[in-house]
Design a protein that fits this description.
By secondary structure, the protein is of the alpha/beta class. It contains nine helices and eight strands. It is globular and about 45 Å long.
Length: 301
């Protein structure tokens, strides 16, 4: 199958600048071995970005603008038979990617590799950073304002798995308590190992679904190893385990229909450590996509 890279150059979902530069840098790095098309979507350069931590809906309008463009473009490329590989950007850009996948396949599961559960809403957020909302948004828990462009099914919470969560506020924990979402913490990964966790995650996410969407947030890795993250969380996993998680995902790639890699912030990286990890992950994913059988989608959206 032909891969198409979607560069989502936005950091409007977080008060820290820099994640919008991640796709730009990674696209340059990928040029050496990726010969396919790269589509770039940039946040409006005229936007005066809100960084006010008391603003509970920072940059909501501007985020919806770029996310609607991403959503429609991803749908169009899916219709043409491409496998979309989205590179962010802060995690708010995974909203259109996940929802476009759900629009095409109707019944999908989702596996989210992240230090944050991202199950906040405008009601429960402590920072107003919309990059902390995606899981709630794509599973239909409030956040209707962030999916106004979506015309299709949401992703069922019972088919959603979060792997590596280690930072949640109390209200977010309350949101998750009865959500039906399965959560594996960082300690679970270290205890069980990458293979068991990923196998269990796919068993949940692929049960009575057509496919599984993957969101890989680089903040899963400890910032002492991968410092190029906007909102770092300590006590993360090491590079070897992060690589093993991705490798185990690739063994299930016959049921994967979308892949996002997000949150590289070059402005916070040191000696390009995080960038190199991201490139190593993407190289393997692209090679795996190219081995998938071609798929042509004929129906109208």
């Amino acid at each position: 199958m032909n891969c198409i890279i979607i560069g989502a150059e936005s950091d409007l979902g977080v008060h820290i600048d820099g994640a919008r530069l991640g796709p730009v840098q990674l696209a340059k790095d990928l040029a050496g071995f990726y010969q396919g098309e790269i589509l770039s979507f940039k946040q409006d350069e005229t936007t005066i970005k809100s960084r006010n931590l008391s603003d509970r809906s920072k940059n909501k309008y501007e985020i919806n603008q770029i996310n609607e463009k991403l959503y429609n473009s991803i749908l169009e490329k899916r219709k043409e038979g491409f496998f979309p590989l989205l590179i962010g950007g802060d995690k708010s850009v995974t909203i259109p990617s996940c929802l476009a996948d759900a629009r095409e396949n109707e019944e999908i599961g989702c596996i989210i590799i992240s230090a944050h559960a991202d199950y906040n809403t405008f009601r429960t957020t402590e920072t107003g950073n919309i990059n902390g909302f995606p899981t709630a948004c794509i599973t239909g828990f409030e956040c209707e304002e962030l999916r106004t462009f979506h015309r299709g099914e949401i992703i069922q919470a019972s088919k959603t798995v979060i792997i590596g969560a280690r930072s949640m506020n109390e209200k977010e924990k309350d949101n998750l308590k009865y959500s039906g979402i399965t959560v594996y913490t960082t300690e679970d990964i270290k205890k069980l190992g990458a293979k068991d966790v990923i196998d269990q995650a796919f068993e949940i996410a692929s049960y009575k679904t057509k496919s599984v969407h993957i969101c890989y947030d680089l903040d899963i890795i400890d910032p002492s190893i991968a410092p190029g993250i906007s909102i770092p969380e300590f006590n993360g996993i090491d590079e070897e385990l992060a690589t093993n998680i991705n490798d185990q995902i690739l063994t299930h790639f016959n049921v994967v229909s979308g892949y996002d890699l997000v949150e590289l912030n070059p402005l916070r990286d040191q000696a390009r450590k995080t960038e190199q990890i991201a490139i190593n992950l993407l190289f393997k994913v692209i090679k795996q996509i190219e081995q998938l059988p071609d798929k042509k989608i004929d129906e109208e959206y």
